[in-house]
Specification:
This protein has a domain of 42 residues. The chain has 3 helices and no strands. The longest helix has 16 residues. The N and C termini lie far apart (36 Å).
């Protein structure tokens, strides 16, 4: 039995709004989008690339949003421990 919260019933599953290219977010929109990105990254474990794909924003934009909110980024790649034998 899983303890994960159910995914929202939207196409991407992360509950992020699709934002048109070159649209600047300000004030309450920016805060709400930042909170949604943080929730997708922390609570749902979404990758930055998945967040980019669903929201329509660039990789650097998502990284900047996470950094501005003080979210520690996960290390790149998978497990670094390999057994040699």
């Amino acid at each position: 039995m899983s303890t994960d919260p159910p995914a929202p019933s939207v196409p991407g599953g992360l509950g992020l709004p699709k934002i048109p290219k070159r649209k600047r977010l300000s004030g309450q929109e920016k805060e709400a989008f930042g909170a949604a990105v943080e929730k997708a990254y922390r609570a749902r474990g979404a990758s930055i690339r998945a967040i980019c794909a669903e929201s329509g924003r660039g990789f650097a934009t998502i990284v900047n949003i996470l950094n501005a909110r003080g979210v520690p980024l996960r290390p790149r790649g998978g497990s670094s421990s390999r057994r040699r034998g």
